[in-house]
Amino acid sequence: MSLFLVAAATYIAVLGVAGTAWAAAAACAIVLPSGVLFLRAGTALAYSRGPQRPLAALPGRLASSPDPGHVADAVAVTIREALGVPAVEVLVSGESLAHQGGEAATTERCEVDFDGERVAEIQLAPRAGESVLTRRDWLILDRISVTAAPALRGAFAAREAEEARSRLETARADERRRLHADLHDELGPALAGLGYTARAAAHNLHGPTPTVEAMLISIEAGIRALVRRVREISYDLRSEELSGTRLEAILEDRLRTEDDQLDISLICQPVPDELLPDILRIVQEDVTNVRRHAIASRCTVTVGIDQQRRVRITVDDDGSSADPNATEGIGHASIRRRAKKHGGWMEFTSSVHGSQLTAVLGSAGIRDA
Questions:
Q1: Whole-Å CA distances, 326 to 145, 208, 224
Q2: What's the rounded Cα separation, in Å, for the pair 58 and 143?
Q3: How does DSSP classify residue 253?
Q4: Cα 91 from chain centroid (whole Å)
Q5: Which residues 6+ apart lie within 8 Å of 319 measured at CB?
Q6: Phi-psi region of 94 (alpha: psi -120 to 50; beta: other; left: phi over 0)
Q7: In this structure, what is the dihedral angle of CA atoms 174, 176, 180, 181, given to the nearest 10 degrees?
Q8: Distance of CA 340 to the CA centre of its chain
Q9: Taking a C-beta distance cutoff of 8 angstroms, is the pair 339, 361 a contact?
Q10: 3-class secondary structure, 101
Q11: Helix H or strand E encompassing 58
Q12: 242-369, superfamily in CATH?
């Protein structure tokens, strides 16, 4: 009000001496400098503490925010602090990932591009009393966009890769379930039926020669072994059910067979999940060897953690036909390879009183409780 009075008095005083034009010029000379000062004060107030500190903090915020949503939040917070605007929203493909501020209408838009591709859109509301952003606002937005664009693109690339990996895992899991169903529900029963047919033929064939009967018995035994192998493969396909805490239950399910003449005892401790597939294969391989090559009625499987924090597997049987000096077969070679893969070893001993296989898997994945 005082500025208006001074300008009016100046105008009247000059009007009486030099006329209207000079009076108006004198009044403007009083008002304009004050207006510039008011504009500068308003701009300083609008920018508050200035954009330098938020701009300097932006790279650190982006580096600690690998997720697209967090990156968008970091961008929105920085813009709001740097420009002093009431509301900021960051959108990607039309999806709002971050919103800072109140419900003010976001009428201004800024595109964020990286390598010629739009990665985000920023919408913001001008400061109170302003209808558009200033030239300085747009320069600051450009700086923020250039800094944030690689982080936004990288975060979304990481999300896309994770989503692709998840889709691949889902597809693999679906395929494993399908193969499991095919093996367990179709091939397994079909082979079992052939085995029963061979057994019935061996018992009911009129006047069979010893050679024919032996062949049929061999066919039945081969089919039964193949059925067991099909079961093992189908179980391995159910990876989602594998857990080291369920080792004994899993072995109980896999090693038992109908009309099994081998008495199997299990003594098992929980083992690391990452070692479980090889532990299962080692035990299954050796129990299969006991069935095929040892004249055994009893077999004891022990799996535990020794004092060196290693997994120790022992399979004892009371058979007497194994030759410890015989050439190593495929089964033992496979067991040795699996143990060595985990920094371990395998040892096999045999006598007239029975055989013992010991396999040790190194400490990979085993931690102290």
A1: 73, 36, 26
A2: 10
A3: H
A4: 25
A5: 290, 293, 294, 295, 296, 354, 355
A6: left
A7: 20
A8: 28
A9: yes
A10: strand
A11: helix 52-63
A12: Histidine kinase-like ATPase, C-terminal domain (3.30.565.10)
pLDDT tens digits, one per residue of 267-283: 999 999 889 888 988 99
211-221 pLDDT, tens per residue? Answer: 766 777 777 77
Same fold, 52-155 and 242-369: no
- The stretches of 183-275 forming alpha helices (DSSP H) are 188-204, 210-236, 247-255
Q: For residues 45 and 75, what is the distance between their CA atoms, to the nearest angstrom?
A: 22
Query: CA–CA separation, 28 vs 7, rounded Å?
Result: 8
Tokens standing for residue 304: 């535990």
Residues 6+ apart with CB under 8 A from 147: 55, 58, 59, 62
Total-model pTM: 0.44
Domain segments of the chain as ranges: 2-44, 52-155, 242-369
Domain spanning 52-155 has what CATH number? 3.30.450.40
3-state secondary structure of 323: coil
Strand arrangement, sheet containing 354-361: 263-268, 298-305, 311-317, 354-361, 345-351
What is the number of helices (H) and of strands (E) in the chain?
10, 9
